[in-house]
TrEMBL record:
Residues 20-147 form the DNA polymerase III delta N-terminal domain. It catalyses: DNA(n) + a 2'-deoxyribonucleoside 5'-triphosphate = DNA(n+1) + diphosphate. Residues 220-340 form the DNA polymerase III delta subunit-like C-terminal domain. This is DNA polymerase III subunit delta. SUPFAM superfamilies: P-loop containing nucleoside triphosphate hydrolases, post-AAA+ oligomerization domain-like. Belongs to the DNA polymerase HolA subunit family. Pfam families: DNA_pol3_delta, DNA_pol3_delta_C. It comes from Clostridium moutaii.
Length: 343
């Protein structure tokens, strides 16, 4: 099993396997790397002729995938067959009709034709899920890529690519500040924020003040207010502030990510304070740059017990899982989160 970094190194060195399985909780990250892989295998002019994809969640017969793999490429050395959202690769999804055929599917993957690159990807329901027995058994015969969240310099390099693709340069120091403000590490959300920042600074260079104005004042302080209303058990105010954020065009997934992030920070602050740590040390440990923001969070943390904060974080994770796995109204789910957190 390889990680995203190793996978990309192998691609740069021209090492391409006949069969891949990508697994992880960030679909955007998986899709981006599959797109890069396809670009290495097929020339752009021949992609329409040599690229076939299937929806794994509705696929009823694996023979259609086999037939696509066995068919020779047209005017190209290779073809790509993609089976996306292949939940049958993970044990426990008994609703999928192909789940019972796993052994036969596994057997075929050992003999994928040389002219074909067969790619699967399956999504974990939450960040805490790990590869199971099926994925580990596949790892012996095909290339399994675990698409974990990228962090540190890897994240900074990826975010810098987002800026460069939009014709924007950003200083390394400012890039690091931006990545810190984007804590949560969801690439689809981060790219949306890059787009907003590039539009905001159209025709000029990006300044640190722009980031603070857009992402600290507008978003983080609004989340401060929502969490503050929750800590005061003011349900009406919390729901009102939530609706204001939604009406303001902030995506529900982003709001949830920020609320979860806020509770995580409050938990860590309270833990460090109870451990006798001082202000300067806490700010350095948690990479909090704003003294004003730190003071607000200290006051908020005092309104919760550690047990309440742990419960709030778990409720956020449960809400995130429900949004990904159920056909529900996301706004209602977020309102239920606030109600349950206050209860």
């Amino acid at each position: 099993m390889v990680d995203i970094v190793t996978f990309n190194k192998n691609l740069k060195n021209g090492h391409i396997e006949n069969c891949y399985l990508f697994c992880g909780s960030d679909e955007f990250l998986i899709k981006e790397n599959i797109k890069t892989l396809i670009g290495k295998v097929i020339k752009p002019d021949f992609i329409d002729l040599n690229y076939v994809k299937f929806d794994g969640s509705s696929l009823e017969d694996f023979n259609t995938v086999i037939n696509a793999c066995e068919t020779l490429p047209f005017m190209s050395d290779k073809k790509v067959v993609l089976v996306y959202r292949a939940s049958f690769m993970v044990e426990g999804d008994y609703k999928n009709k192909l789940s019972g055929e796993f052994k036969n599917i596994h057997s075929y993957l050992k003999n994928v034709p040389e002219h074909c690159v067969l790619i699967f990807y399956c999504l974990f329901k939450s960040k805490r899920d790990k590869p199971g027995k099926r994925i580990y058994s596949l790892d012996k015969d095909i290339c399994v890529v675990k698409a974990d969240k990228i962090r540190g310099y890897q994240l900074e390099n990826k975010v810098q690519e987002f800026f460069h693709s939009r014709g924007k340069d950003i200083k390394k120091v400012d890039l690091r500040v931006f990545c810190n403000l984007m804590d949560g590490n969801n690439l689809s959300i981060i790219e949306n924020e890059v787009e907003k920042l590039c539009c905001y600074t159209y025709g000029r260079d990006i300044k640190r003040e722009d980031m603070q104005k857009m992402f600290l004042s507008n978003n983080e302080e609004d989340i401060f207010d929502v969490v503050n209303a929750i800590s005061n058990k003011n349900l009406k105010e919390a729901v009102h502030l939530l609706n204001e954020l939604i009406y303001g065009g902030i995506k529900i997934n982003y709001i949830l990510t920020m609320i979860e992030r806020q509770f995580n920070i409050l938990f860590k602050i309270k833990l460090l304070l109870e451990g006798g740590k001082q202000k300067v040390e806490i700010m350095k440990t948690l990479n909090i740059r704003s003294e004003y923001g730190y003071n607000i969070m200290v006051q908020q943390s005092k309104k919760f017990t550690l047990k309440q904060l742990k419960r709030s974080i778990q409720l956020c994770l449960n809400t995130e899982r429900n949004m990904k796995s159920l056909s529900i109204d996301e706004r209602t789910e977020l309102e239920l989160l606030i109600i349950n957190t206050i209860a």
